[in-house]
Structure formats: structure tokens, C-alpha cells
Give the backbone structure.
Amino acid sequence: MPVSRETEARLDRYVDLLLEWQAKTNLVAPSTLPSLWTRHIADSLQLLTIAPSAKTWADLGSGGGFPGVVLACALAGTPGAMVHLVERNAKKAAFLREALRVTNSPGQVHLSDIGDSVDRITGPVDCVTARAVAPLHQLIGFAEPLVRKGAKALFLKGQDVEAELTEATKYWNIKPQLHSSRTGGHGWIVELDNIERRRQPATAHGTSA
Ligand SMILES: C[S@@+](CC[C@H](N)C(=O)[O-])C[C@H]1O[C@@H](n2cnc3c(N)ncnc32)[C@H](O)[C@@H]1O
């Protein structure tokens, strides 16, 4: 994923900080550290190719900062950019604040449960994201208030995406667009522009109960 020299310098600072904190707090699975740049950073950056003009993002369950901090680093030179990072774990939230500080990137950390904070995010949100946080049907429920107000949802998912979509369509009327991950593996990005709750959950045969 090509980035400017300024973004690369910010990402370098972020990675240095992440490795420093990783020694005392588990921010990413240790087995993924050797492939940090592809597995986590490029995986996060690819969202910008789907929503290149989005300036305001909300990342739900940011953990060690993927994709939220990476997006904030990439958008640091964009006037009016803002990334809301929602995380309920206090240590991780402290890390996220420090990551935004050392990279001088535009973001706000919300130390809270996603369900409690989504409604409190003020101002328009262009994109809502989540990676490795919850099953798709639950993420859709979290994101619905923001999508209703015009946000696009971009969820990074693994190879079980079809099964997750089948489950999600029991509860939600959605027309997902699927993007194959550019970073290899079996990853997918689920894009949603509209979300409507089904009046009654669908049965196993696809009809309303
Ligand atoms: C497996 S980690 C993934 C972190 C990051 N998105 C990534 O892909 O590396 C899931 C993170 O979501 C946070 N999380 C899960 N459910 C949450 C909720 N309901 N509210 C806030 N944070 C939540 C956890 O604390 C954890 O840091």
C-alpha cells in the first residue's frame, strides 16, 4: 500500500511504540509480530482505497489500533480528519491515546463499551469500521445508528464471511458488497451503505417467522 513519506514516518513511530508496549501489554497476537506491516498495517490502510474521500471515521473495538490508529496516521495531513477510537479496555485505551500523541494524528479515544458510545459520537461520521471484535450480526447492530445517519460500514472479516452474512441476514436487511482483501490470506471487507432491522427474524428457510 503506497503512502506518503510523512505517513510512513508516523507509522514507523506507531510501530516502535506498539513494540515497546507489547512487552508489557498484549496488544496484538505475538505470532503476528513478524508480519506486522502486512497483517495489520496494510490490512488497515486498504480501507482508504474503498472510501478515499472519507475524513471522519469511527473504529469500534480498536484494541492495539487496527485499523483506527493506522487510518489516523494516514489522514494526519487531511484538513478536518478525525478518527474516533472506541475501546473498553483501559490499558489499550491508554496505549491508543499515546499512539495518537506520538504520531500527532487526529483522533479521539472513547474508553467505553461500543453500545454506550456510538450514540454519543457527535458530528457526521463518514465510515464506521471494526476488525476482530464481534460476529457480523452484532457489529451491524453496533453500527446501525451511524449508518442510519449516512456512514458507510467497512468490516474486516476472515474466511467465514459467508456464514456470518447468512446469520446476519436473519436479523438485518442488507445489501453487502464484498471486497477481497488486498493483503492476501482469506480476508474480506464487508461494505454496507444501508442497514434495516428485519421486523421479524428470518427462519432457516429464509422466510419471516
Ligand atoms: C481481538 S481485539 C481486536 C483489536 C483490533 N480491532 C485489531 O483488529 O487488532 C478486540 C478488541 O475489541 C475490544 N472490544 C470488544 N468488544 C467491545 C465492546 N463491546 N466495547 C468496546 N470494546 C470492545 C476488546 O477490548 C479488544 O481490545
